[in-house]
Amino acid sequence: MSRPLTPLALTVLRMLCDGPMHPYEMRQRIRDHAYDQAVKITHGALYHSVERLAAAGLIEPLETSREGRRPERTVYTITAAGRDAANFRLGELLARPTAEFPLFGTALAFLNLLPEQEVARQLRHRAVVLEAKLAGHQTANEALLKSGLERYKLLDHEWSIARVRAELDFVRALADDLESGRVTWNDDGESARRPAMPAPYRTGHDTTEDDPTETAREAT
Known about the structure:
Residues 12-85 form the Transcription regulator PadR N-terminal domain. It contains 9 helices and 2 strands; from the N terminus they run H-H-H-E-E-H-H-H-H-H-H. It has helices spanning 7-16, 23-32, 43-55, 80-95, 103-109, 116-146, 155-180, 199-202, 216-219; strands at 59-65, 73-78. A two-stranded antiparallel ribbon has the order 1-2. Strand 1 (59-65) and strand 2 form a beta hairpin.
């Protein structure tokens, strides 16, 4: 059984749903539509993703051309299996929360390596960064809405704003609790026994490896 479509592979399939194009055009569209703010994308990874999708039968070459001394450019089109795979993976991502193991969560797990007041100081610094990030997101989102862009095209921006706001609230509250002494530790940085989390929080996580793969059979 193949592994799920990666975010980058899903991005390629989404763009090809609009019509055939070659990887260079995909890269331009990624920048134009700010997909690179939602998905980690590099030049090499994009071409690798296209190759893997083609090998999996989710996209196929439509034509190859060359202009002067420039390298050949192959235009790709999405297959029926590719559409099924993209639809299946999108539905899965919407319906099933996954554990993504953010770095901040790692830091929170090991707070007691530092003194409480040092942790509070670092969290105050993080709050300043988050405040600036939140303001930037909100300003950009408001400008895009005023430009007449449909709201559905900005929902990933709204989600980013909501996440930053929630993290900012958490960070401020934790810094307050550390400074007031409501949260403290007295184990001198030694490892403490931690309670086990429920299974849904311990199993499964998204990967950034570029391996396309929900098949049409899985999509049905």
